[in-house]
Design a protein that fits this description.
The protein has helices at residues 11-29, 34-42, 45-69, 73-84, 91-97, 102-130, 132-141, 145-169, 171-199, 201-232, 237-248, 252-262, 267-291. It is mainly α.
């Protein structure tokens, strides 16, 4: 059964994934300067709506999905964990392609990354504990929220601070590094996920078919929920695109780090996060293509 299955992921591979995600975060951070946060402080509504969509709405929608579908415990906890992660590293690129507010997207990623230190372990513990089967896994693994917070902080916050500092002190160097570093880090991450899947291909094929539809529905809920909340909040189409994409693009790489670092690579959780990492890029780029054709984007 999928709850008893584990995927092969060595400590060295986990360390490499940590390093890759740190580089990805650094490549995002060199787009930011302290003045970007001052602009948002003067008009914080889009940011507040975006963070509420990310850390309140998506986990709540995920829990309702879990209650409706009643999946296996590890699959349910995988969905909850992915929903508890901050926005994914490709959300900024996709927002730009969609004709959305890329500055808001980058700022949301930065703020969500900082907030993830507290909110990611809190959401995993809270929503996972409300679904009895996944609560059993949480009790069995004795997850320490402080350890998760430290992992998130070292992997995401440190490169965020370094990237902002470089962009502030050496803007010309940051300009030269920005584009090649973003493409390089994304390429390395995709290659890593492919190699990790190849090492566990038989198990992935065994379980992915039953999980694919659930992940696609989950992703659609994230995108739809973000769009609905931004519309209810009367954000501009420019900001609405950013909130929609930030809610539907999750940092599944961080999810994999937490799954292998704290949950022993439980099969259902790992397959959910891995398939999320593939599907959200496909759905995000498809949505960006549609959005970019509208009058508001032009």
């Amino acid at each position: 059964m999928i709850d008893e299955a584990t995927l092969d992921f060595s400590p060295g591979a986990l360390t490499l994934l940590n390093a890759i995600l740190a580089v990805v975060m650094f490549s995002i951070a060199i787009d930011l300067k302290p003045r970007d946060f001052k602009v948002l402080a003067r008009a914080p509504k889009p940011l507040v709506v975006g963070l509420a969509s990310q850390f309140l709405l998506l986990p709540a929608l995920t829990f309702l999905l879990v209650l409706a579908v009643q999946p296996r415990a590890s699959v349910a906890l995988g969905l909850i964990l992915v929903a508890a992660c901050p926005g994914g590293n490709i959300s900024n690129f996709i927002t730009h392609r969609a004709g959305g507010n890329a500055a808001l997207s980058v700022s949301m990623t930065a703020f969500a990354t900082v907030g993830a230190i507290l909110l990611t372990p809190l959401n995993i513990a809270f929503w996972g504990g409300l679904y009895p089967p996944s609560a059993e896994i949480l009790r069995a693994t004795a997850i320490d929220p402080v350890s998760i917070a430290i992992t998130v902080g070292l992997m995401l916050i440190l490169p965020l601070v370094l990237g902002i500092t470089l962009n502030t002190k050496r803007p010309k160097l940051a300009d030269r590094l920005r584009c090649p570093l973003q493409w390089l880090s994304m390429g390395i991450f995709v290659a890593f996920v492919i190699l990790a899947l190849a090492a566990n291909w038989d198990q992935f094929l065994t379980y992915a078919g039953g999980i694919a539809g659930l992940v696609i529905l989950h992703n659609a809920l994230g995108l739809g929920g973000g769009y609905a909340l931004a519309t209810l909040a009367r954000l501009s189409p420019f900001d609405r695109r950013a909130v929609t994409i930030e809610t539907g693009i999750q940092n599944s790489g961080l999810g994999l780090v937490l799954i292998f670092g704290f949950f022993g690579g439980i099969g259902g959780m790992a397959v959910v996060a891995a398939f999320w990492g593939i599907w959200h890029a496909i759905s995000g780029l498809a949505l960006a293509s549609l959005m970019s054709r509208t009058e508001a984007a032009r």
